[in-house]
Specification:
Number of strands: 13
Radius of gyration: 22 Å
Structural class: alpha/beta
Order of helices and strands: HEEHEEEHEHHEEEHHEEHEHEHH
Number of domains: 2
CATH topology of the largest domain: Nucleotidyltransferase, domain 5
Shape: globular
Bound molecules: adenosine-5'-triphosphate, magnesium ion
Distance between the termini: 33 Å
Length: 349
């Protein structure tokens, strides 16, 4: 944080924090209302979104985002900006993301203890999408897959709107663990080996490439073939992508992601990731690096920074609207944050 303050030349008081984890659930909902004066006004838009979010949510879950997809007026669908249009019946389709209250509270608590206020909590793949996806891709249809350490986050965009979100509890940490067990080496060494020599497609590795692997319990280091390392990584990465593919098929948007798949997150630095992903998804795949960020390009030019850069982009679009002082109890801050999240859609118009 000190480094960031130095580089940006300002004091950091509040942050946009990402949220992910197996507890995140995304689903689509819709609401219908009668248009009061035969012409859609801001009040109608607010009412129809209220109608769309009127669903039962368990006590231990909170709404994190309500993301409008499209509006339908009478029989005309695909409307993005309904204000001022004439009709009698207004329908809204939205994507709602919910998460465990406790998990959001822990994020806020951690930030507060580090002396920071939380300006907003943002779904991580939504943040990443701000940094790595182009408007054209979102329009044509794209699946964003953010393979991090503990989780793999999925977001599907079609017609410029988010249609599906989900989170798998699998990621790069599992790869490190597989290497530690498979090569009988300490976790810290396994992590180093993964980052330095890792490749998840055995066919890309030369037969005579070797790596030095430290042993546990004071035994001597061994020289092993790099092929062996790739053979450990390949099935696990394939498993992750296969589970992601299952999610995409389950979402029903499989045939609509015409521009293909964008993979991002620290684990996609691994050699062979796009190639293996193309085999599993049978779609064009590219690595997503943060874009459109001017002077910072050199510093953050890696898929590992997609979420971080995305949070900054998200924050810059929503800046100044909401700040939450840490003097209050964490509970009430969370209420406020989630209250603001619920409000967010109205600022959207
Ligand atoms: N050069 C590299 N090669 C392979 N894996 C790497 C490399 N650099 C980082 N990783 C892996 O990337 C993962 C971290 O990625 P990232 O920073 O995107 O995760 P995160 O966003 O912090 O975690 P999560 O998304 O699960 O909350 C770690 O598992 C790390 O081992
Ligand atoms: Mg991440």
């Amino acid at each position: 944080m000190e480094e960031a303050e130095l580089m940006a030349g300002c004091e950091i008081k509040s942050v946009y924090a990402g949220i992910a984890g197996g507890h995140i659930k995304g689903f689509n909902s819709q609401g219908v209302i009668a248009i009061k004066n035969r012409e859609v006004c801001a009040e109608d838009v607010k009412r129809v979104i209220d109608a769309a979010k009127a669903i039962a949510i368990p006590m231990d879950r909170e709404v994190i985002h309500i993301l409008p997809q499209e509006f339908i007026i009478d029989d005309q669908d695909g409307i993005r900006e309904p204000l001022g249009m004439s009709g009698v019946r207004l329908e809204a389709k939205v994507h709602i993301v919910t998460g465990a209250v406790a998990s959001a509270q822990n994020i806020i608590k951690s930030c507060n203890r580090a002396g920071l206020d939380v300006a907003d909590i943002v779904l991580e793949q939504l943040a990443s999408s701000e940094a790595v996806l182009s408007a054209d891709e979102k329009e044509l249809g794209v699946a964003l897959i953010d393979v991090g350490g503990g989780t793999t986050d999925i977001a599907i965009f079609v017609d410029g709107a988010i249609k599906h979100t989900s989170v798998l509890s699998l990621g790069g940490n599992h790869l490190t663990n597989d290497i530690a067990v498979g090569l009988r080496t300490p976790m810290a060494e396994a992590e180093k080996i993964k980052q330095k020599y890792g490749c998840c497609l055995a066919s890309l590795v030369g037969k005579d490439e070797t790596i030095e692997v430290p042993s546990v319990g004071g035994r001597k280091p061994r020289v092993l073939s790099r092929q062996l390392l790739a053979e450990i990584l390949e099935p696990r990465v394939e498993e992750i992508f296969t589970l992601v593919n299952r999610e995409i098929v389950k979402s029903g948007y499989e045939d609509m992601i015409a521009s293909g798949v964008v993979i991002t997150g620290g684990s996609t630095i691994l050699e062979g990731m796009p190639e293996l992903a193309e085999q599993v998804f049978n779609l064009p795949v590219r690595r997503g690096l943060p874009q459109r960020i001017g002077g910072l390009v050199d510093v953050v030019n890696s898929p590992a920074y997609a979420t971080g850069v995305g949070l900054v982009v998200y924050g810059s679009k929503n800046v100044g609207v909401h700040e939450f002082p840490s003097a209050q109890s964490e509970e009430s801050i969370f209420r406020k944050v989630s209250g603001r999240m619920k409000e967010w859609f109205s600022e959207f118009f």
